[in-house]
Amino acid sequence: MTFIRFSRAVLLSPLLLIAACSSDKKPDAQAAAATPVAPVAVAPTPKPAPVETPAAAETPAPAAPAGFDPSTVPVVSPKLGAFPYFTLLDNYHKGTIKDSEVRSEEVKDLMKDAAFDRYEFFDGVKIIPVEGRLATIKAVGNGASFFQVQKTYEKLVHDLGGVTVWEGNMEKFKDAKLNFDERRHRGRYNMWNSEKAGVYMLRTPDKEIWVEPYQIYDDHENYWLTVVEKKALPMQASVLPAAEMKKALDATGHVALYLNFDTDQATLKPDAQATIAQIIALLAQNPDLKLAVQGHTDNAGTPAHNQELSEARARTVVANLTAQGIAADRLQASGFGQTKPLVDNSTEPNKAKNRRVELVKL
Known about the structure:
It holds the Pfam family OmpA. The protein is of the alpha+beta class.
């Protein structure tokens, strides 16, 4: 019992001491509370400057596929034969009107050997127009699949240092929603999904050579071959001055002019404006002069088409003259199609000579 009392005494002592200490501090705390405190001005906490949220960067539209770039093709210097450089496969020959597989319009309008023309190639993404010397042949024969045709010309071009531009089904061309300015033998009745092509290219220091074997939808025995040697337009004529036009009109009553139109169209090319300017000068210097403007074509295409084309080209020339101040009553437009050639149409240079516009003194 003595031990228990001692323990309680020990435990109570700290409690009494704590109470005494608390009692001693109360008056000081009350006094502090009673003492007035001078107010302290507190500067307002500045509001943080608003953080500008950067505008979301516009996501650029994805770039359209570039397709084939001719400038990336290595320049090589192979030994080449004569244009068109490539022969037909064994057991094939150039089609003629005597072949049952060749329609008459194919011979007249589609099979070509032109000193200068324009052909459009499909590279799997876009159309690449190429201007220059052109040959298009319908190869008639049998024994080769079109796959063999493709791979034969691909190897020939590759062996010379060239490249493959594209091979495949022309359904891809249709899906790309493209259209050739001149389809020629391709895409008859829009049967693109049944046609195939291969496009190959060779680049030398002074030219590009493009090769396209092509299979049309309704003829899987034969194939078409087009070769284009890219080059600048050979200038075969110069602008005839107004004074020379007047001299010819006085001597013979007519003068032939060679104006460049878009192929098979009545649209003048920009370089034709130099000749138009000389006709305007001629008429301005001779206010009493009246002229018939007569269009002429070669024999490519049907006579009816050539008649319409020659008339349309004559009207285009007259429209250009009247638009620049020449009175309409001084001009007459007419066309003669292929009926009045200057020379026979047996060669390309002769055909070029027959494609003309004549000024005839009225």
